[in-house]
Backbone:
């Protein structure tokens, strides 16, 4: 059985992850592959419970160390119980966020050293990295304005502009360091142009 391919979709809030994930899925299915979509934090029942803890705006402060450990705890469930079994069964996996979110939000945003995050990544998922990562990019003002129209902000969405600025810059740095895995897509353009780019990238991966 040929292993499925693993694609992750990244970016700050409001950059259009859901719309572009739909494009990816349709394209992969049209080529005759099975495809599974999942998200992080989340993707399994326990990991979704951890997501609720992480996104909830409660009274008790969430220490940064607890935040990064919970992200990786949730990821461990998703990788072991969902992602690896699917890939091994030949199913393609499209994941809404993966470890690059921890690098950008907990590393860039909160200031946790990148080596700490990369050590956790190595421990939790070893060589399981996406074959392709789409970084949907837009200036923070545009993303936050779009995200703001979606209702009450969660614990992350209530962060300030400069937090998301650091997250965006960190994403762009990671993408520049790993140009073979990452593709940066400018989502300030017309939506049809963005979708066409995503479709073309999917086709390229399908032909490999
Ligand atoms: P979502 O709303 O885009 O699904 O993601 C939930 C929030 O979790 C989002 O604000 C980004 C954040 N997040 C991290 O801070 N670190 C991570 O590792 C992941 C996966 C998400």
Residues:
């Amino acid at each position: 059985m040929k292993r499925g391919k693993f694609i992750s979709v990244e970016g700050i809030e409001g950059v259009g992850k859901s719309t572009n994930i739909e494009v990816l899925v349709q394209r992969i299915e049209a080529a005759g592959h099975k495809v599974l979509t999942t998200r992080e934090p989340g993707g399994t029942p326990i990991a979704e419970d951890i997501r609720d803890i992480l996104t909830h705006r409660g009274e008790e402060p969430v220490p940064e160390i607890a935040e990064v450990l919970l992200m990786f705890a949730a990821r461990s469930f998703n990788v072991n119980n969902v992602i690896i079994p699917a890939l091994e069964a030949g199913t393609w996996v499209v994941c809404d966020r993966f470890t690059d979110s921890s690098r950008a939000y907990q590393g860039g945003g909160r200031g946790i050293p990148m080596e700490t995050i990369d050590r956790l990544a190595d421990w939790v998922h070893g060589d399981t990295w996406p074959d392709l990562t789409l970084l949907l990019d837009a200036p923070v003002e545009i993303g936050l304005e779009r995200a703001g129209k979606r209702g009450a902000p969660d614990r992350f969405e209530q962060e300030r502009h400069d937090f998301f600025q650091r997250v965006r810059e960190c994403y762009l740095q990671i993408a520049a360091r790993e140009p073979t895995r990452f593709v940066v897509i400018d989502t300030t353009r017309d939506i049809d142009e963005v979708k066409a780019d995503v479709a073309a990238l999917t086709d390229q991966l399908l032909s490999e």
